[in-house]
Amino acid sequence: MYKPTYPKTFPKDFLWGGATAANQVEGAWNEAGKGLTTAEVVKKTTDRKHMSMDDVTIFSIQTALDDQTDTMYPKRRGVDFYHHYKEDIKLFAEMGFKVYRFSIAWSRLFPKGDELKPNSDGLAFYDRVIDELRRYHIQPLVTLSHYEMPIGLTLKQNGWASRATIADFNRFTEVVFKHFKGRVPYYLTFNEINTGTWGFHATGAVDTENSAHDQMQLRYQALHHQFIASALATKQLHAIDPDAKIGSMLARMQTYPATPNPADVQAAQVEDDKNLFFTDVQARGEYPEFMNRFFAENDIQLQMAPDDQTILAKYPVDFISFSYYMTTVTQADAPEQVNGNMATGGRNPYLEESDWGWQIDPVGLRVTLNEMWDRYRKPLFVVENGLGALDQLTTDQQVHDTYRIDYLRKHIAQMKAAVQDGVQLMGYTMWGPIDLISFSTSEMSKRYGFIYVDQDDAGKGSLKRYKKDSFYWYQKVIKSNGEDLA
Questions:
Q1: Backbone torsions φ then ψ of 142, nearest 5 degrees
Q2: What is the Cα–Cα distance from 345 to 329, expressed in whole angstroms?
Q3: Which residue in the list 87, 286, 384, 483 is annotated as catalytic?
Q4: Is 384 a catalytic residue?
């Protein structure tokens, strides 16, 4: 007789931790031979609901290069993880982290992006970081490209719009894989690769001033080059360090039909497919058929080398990771729009919103985990999820962030339910375990962390670190392997 069973909780080897990006935490933008990145030439926004990271021209880049300060470019200073990494990693260890996701800044190893040999000072810094993590038995999860390619490649060949960038990137990845062999068990190739459809921040390619069609053509061509570079990096890693695993990373934009109207249901399906297209390529190793119609109807003609499709098919990723912050609804005719983490869509009347207008939907995380597991049957990893909020440090130097605890509690509970559904989930790295510079607006006021950093939007402050209430809560969650969420 068949007696069905199912997992009751998270697996014993579940990877609890947190995630950051070099351009949002490291600082030290002009130290030890580092070159400027695409992230460090984007001015901070004056409107926190306007994401300015793609408002870039050759003129604005030159203006940024001429400005040797961090006043208008807060990602240059980050929160000085470069000099505080020992203190910060010790705090992560105190919470009980099993894994820490961080990115290696390409320009710290190859300042202009096209050098033939790496900057030894850059390698030495990441040696120190990884050694410190391993000292506390924290596993490194390294993102190879997290919105921070060398600006030199934009100026030389318009970033990923050029096929030449593939070789430059894979020279970088080969150095990383060989140098850190046996010390980094998990890698991701391109952070939120689908956001390349939005432009410069992810592709390093300055848009043409011609038609919207030309803009779309450029962006999808750049993304094709990233797909090939990702597959070749997978080939490299499997040859150099067979015990390590490499994954893709998607900004998951789960959408629901606004009504049961079949037109809305079909429109939502189209939107969801457009989001998952990127993971289809990286995990299944081929362009899905539905994109043929999209490319044809939009007159997108991708330039491919003769063996490109073979490369994609032979070297798919080992696992799939994604960020999850919010959901939207899709309607056949235009609904009221909401914005958040690159997602735009209809407003859902059943959901609350954050201070930045992002709709909070814990159940949607379970929905998307199940959908992605059914679609790919590859291990999944939630590598970003968190709440940006206006935290206040009290006079006795505490932060009572019950709203963050409530947000994370509800999302973790839904992850547990998905595991009970049968989803193979590797781990969870919440976004921003330490306060950092916001990706979308370059402000400090939008705080995610369990650790408060004394720095304001102008860069003023002591940089002293303080534990928030959520620090102790997450410590309890990890110690109980997700059982104690109270």
A1: -100, 125
A2: 6
A3: 384
A4: yes
Distances (CA, A) of 478 to 87, 99, 100, 473: 20, 11, 13, 9
**Which contacts (CB < 8 Å, 24+ apart) does range 333-338 have?**
335/258
Superfamily of domain 15-479: Glycosidases (3.20.20.80)
CA distance 82 to 63: 26
Rounded CA-CA distance 101/93 in Å is 13
Q: Can you say whether the dihedral through the CA atoms of 114, 120, 124, 130 is positive or negative?
A: positive
Separation CA 344–CA 335 (nearest Å): 10
Please check whether residue 153 is in contact with residue 159, taking contact to mean a CB–CB distance below 8 angstroms.
yes
Distance CA 277, CA 259 (A): 24
Residue 185 CA to chain centroid, in angstroms?
18
Dihedral sign computed on CA atoms, order 309, 311, 314, 317: negative
Lookup result for tokens 């609804």: 329
Mean pLDDT value of segment 27-31: 97
What is d(CA 22, CA 42) in angstroms, rounded to the nearest whole number? 15
The two tokens of residue 35 are 């070159």
Q: What radius of gyration do the chain's Cα atoms show?
A: 21
> Hey, is 444 helix, strand or coil?
coil
Task: Choose among 298, 457, 281: nearest CA to 376.
Answer: 281
CA–CA gap between residue 179 and residue 194 (Å, rounded): 29
How does pLDDT run across 206-262, given as a tens digit for each residue? 987 778 899 999 999 999 999 999 999 999 999 999 999 999 999 999 999 999 999
